[in-house]
Design brief:
two-stranded antiparallel ribbon; 13 strands
Length: 345
């Protein structure tokens, strides 16, 4: 009996050796982790079978044939970024100097989240009088008190420049002391903004105001704004605010304040993805701008469009979002999706 078992074992050993058996490492494509075995088989004329493609036929995976160029979008600078996989899908004039308009408020919010605890009580002061006469407002009033996120809501949802200056003042007083005069708040807060921008890798950003109201020296690039938008997209506090189409908050005296979000994508019931923000912007010099964040099946996409004509800000964003999510339709010109709103920021 033992003799028969020994003969059987020997026969199995010979069969395995002749067939190239062994412990196959599928990650390296070699037998027993030794690449020389495959080389030896190739040199001896033996057939080596690819375990992933046993038929030996060439792969027929379809590669995308559409390659968008600068004419793909009408805005002056743009980017479509896969936040989930950390990959730029499309870019246009990424390093061109641009004015960020109210997209500046994303950095203002990031600085506030950095320095103020979510339970920090913010007091509205006379700093709100620093805004330009034609600024967008949330209509907060001196003496009102808000929790940090509620004041950020007043800044991000209706794009209140008054709230932006109040956010800046509360941060400056917390960091530098309560004796800072109103006229010095902007200079102190700009230091914090630019330091934060550098800390996340921005190399061509110089911000001078917390609200984005035009100043010639208040400048950045689409590439730097992508870093700022990515940081904002990774902030639960900021995304929680910017994903609201209608925001309702209460000041500490119990009064109700509500604001509609100027981001029209939040009101669009037809997109396949869920819009989560981030910010609209406009000045005469900057044109119409938009930072978008959306999610579909666990994948998140960020889009940025700068210096757009009014009718193209959202249309270009829809095109970039569809491109990012693999939904782009070459037969759709993506024009006229939204009516021009002359009062939109």
């Amino acid at each position: 009996m033992k003799k028969h078992c020994a003969l059987l074992a020997a026969a199995l050993t010979i069969c395995c050796l002749s067939a190239g058996c062994g412990s196959i490492d599928l990650t390296s494509g070699t037998s027993n982790g030794d690449p020389s075995q495959n080389s030896a088989a190739s040199q001896s004329g033996e057939s080596v079978v690819d375990v992933f493609n046993p038929s030996g036929q060439e792969s027929t995976v379809n590669e995308p044939t559409f390659t968008p160029d600068d004419s793909f979008v009408g805005c002056r600078a743009a980017v479509c970024y896969d936040l989930t996989n950390k990959e730029i899908i499309y870019e246009k004039n990424l390093d061109l100097p641009i004015y960020p308009a109210s997209l500046t408020k994303l950095l203002t919010a990031l600085v506030a989240v950095e320095y103020l605890d979510e339970n920090y009580v913010c007091t509205v002061g006379s700093e709100i009088d620093l805004i330009a006469y034609d600024s967008t407002r949330s209509w907060i009033s001196e003496g009102e008190q808000y929790m940090r996120n509620d004041l950020l809501t007043a800044m991000l949802t209706p794009s209140g420049n008054d709230a932006a200056y109040s956010v800046a003042a509360n941060v400056v007083h917390k960091v530098y002391g309560a004796d800072i005069y109103d006229e010095d708040i902007t200079a102190y807060f700009s230091i914090l903004m630019n330091n934060y921008a550098k800390s996340i890798g921005c190399e061509n950003t110089h911000f001078t105001v917390p609200d984005g109201y035009h100043e010639d020296e208040h400048i950045t690039t689409c590439g730097d704004m992508l870093k700022i938008a990515e940081a904002a997209a990774n902030s639960p506090a900021i995304v929680g605010i910017t994903s609201q189409d209608l925001a309702v908050v209460y000041d500490l005296d119990g009064y109700t304040h509500s604001w509609e979000n100027g981001n029209m994508l939040l009101w669009d019931p037809y997109t396949e993805y869920v819009s989560k923000g981030l910010k609209t912007g406009y000045t005469d010099e900057a044109g119409f701008c938009f930072a978008g964040l959306a999610e579909l099946d666990g994948k998140q996409i960020i889009t940025l469009t700068f210096d757009c004509d009014i009718e193209y800000r959202y249309d270009d964003t829809l095109k970039l979002m569809d491109l990012g999510f693999g939904l782009y339709d070459e037969d759709n010109n993506y024009r006229g999706e939204y009516a021009a709103d002359p009062d939109a920021e």
